[in-house]
Amino acid sequence: MIGLAAGMEMADMAWEVKCREEDMKQRALENERHAIDDARRSVDEKAEQLKVLANQSALFAGFSMVVLVESNIPDDINVALLTFFGGVTASVIALMLISTLNSTYILVAILRYDCVNRPVPFDDFWRKRCEPDWKLALRTFSYGVPLFMSVVALVAWVTFWDSDSLYYSATVVTAIVLAVTMFWFGSTKRKWTDFLMMSEARLSTRGTSYRTMNGMRSPPPASKEGNEQNRRSIESGQSNEDQSDAESIGSLNSSSQAVGNLSSSETKMK
Question: For the chain, what percent of residues have pLDDT higher than 90?
Answer without folding.
Answer: 38
